[in-house]
UniProtKB/TrEMBL annotation:
GO terms for cellular component: plasma membrane. Keywords: Cell membrane, Membrane, Transmembrane, Transmembrane helix. It comes from the Bacteria. This is YihY family inner membrane protein. It is found in: Cell membrane. It is a multi-pass membrane protein. The chain crosses the membrane at residues 27-50, 94-119, 140-165, 177-195, 202-227, 239-265. InterPro entries: Virul_fac_BrkB. The keyword Zinc does not apply.
């Protein structure tokens, strides 16, 4: 059999045996419950800035709200999110504390889900991560997540400044394109190489990250097109935004883990196994 056909056959078999779709659902679940504490912290922080009359604070709050509404992409959610932001911003101290506690809980669950998913996808027989490896994994995830947040906030700040300096408006779209399509690839390389207990090697991690990054970008584009054709509001009513967010997280997590599975297939150990047609 052709080597690539053997490898694809191994991938198809490993996808089911290593429970990739189930692990993606677990990642989506914990990511979902990490988003709301993050929303609380963001609203509380913006509330502080607005009350302190910091430069561009009002414009930044409006831009972040607009970005969140566009991301959820459901009709009628703008008013709900706007009211929520206004309420949270006026209760910044209490909401900020609740957001920190909730975010810590969500992150701890997310770290466990990511660690288990990486171990299951790359090598189900490998031992579970010890506490030192879990701390390292948590640091890697938080660092990469922080870079994502900085890039996202940077694009929003640029959008605010562009209102006063129109020539900068030409940079806003390219910056968001970098965040949405290019940044996931180096982030996935680091995650695929540093998180598993048995590392695949940088070459395999790069191959998997390219595939995972392309799939991740395809999910964003395809999901936007799909939402323009289907009315979730009609089916789910007031809960439409939650259903949309869960579905988006599920497919995004699946794209991430499929890339990880490709990286596992390209690792020296699994490459030999694939050539021998064993999963």
């Amino acid at each position: 059999m052709n080597p690539w056909r053997k490898r694809l056959s191994w991938l198809a078999q490993a996808f089911g045996e290593r429970e990739v779709s189930l692990r993606a659902a677990a990642l989506a679940y914990y990511a979902f419950f990490s988003i709301f504490p993050l929303l609380l912290l963001t609203a509380a922080g913006l509330g502080y800035l607005v009350r302190l009359r910091a430069p561009f604070a009002v414009e930044l709050e409006a831009t972040v709200l607009e970005y969140a509404t566009q991301t959820l992409a459901t009709s009628g959610v703008g008013g709900t999110v706007g009211g929520l932001f206004s309420t949270l911003a006026t209760s910044a101290p209490v909401i900020g504390l609740a957001g920190v506690l909730g975010l810590l809980w969500g992150i701890s669950g997310s770290l466990s889900a990511v660690s288990l998913a990486m171990g299951q996808v790359f090598d189900p027989e490998a031992p579970l991560l010890d506490w030192k490896a879990r701390l390292r994994a948590g640091g890697v995830i938080l660092a990469i997540g922080g870079v994502f947040v900085l890039f996202t906030l940077g694009s929003q700040v640029l959008g605010v400044i562009a209102r006063f300096i129109p020539v900068l408006a030409t940079l806003e779209a390219p910056l968001r394109a970098v965040v949405n399509f290019l940044l996931p690839i180096p982030a996935f390389v680091l995650l695929y190489q540093l998180l598993p207990n048995r590392r695949p090697g940088w070459g395999a991690a790069v191959w998997g990250a390219v595939i995972g990054g392309v799939l991740f970008g395809g999910v964003q584009v395809g999901f936007g097109v799909y939402l323009r054709l289907v009315s979730f509001q009609t089916v789910f009513g007031p809960l439409a935004s939650l259903a949309v967010l869960l579905l988006w997280l599920q497919f995004s997590s699946l794209a991430f883990l499929i890339g990880a599975l490709f990286a596992a297939a390209m690792s020296p150990k699994n490459r030999a196994v694939a050539m021998g047609s064993r999963a």
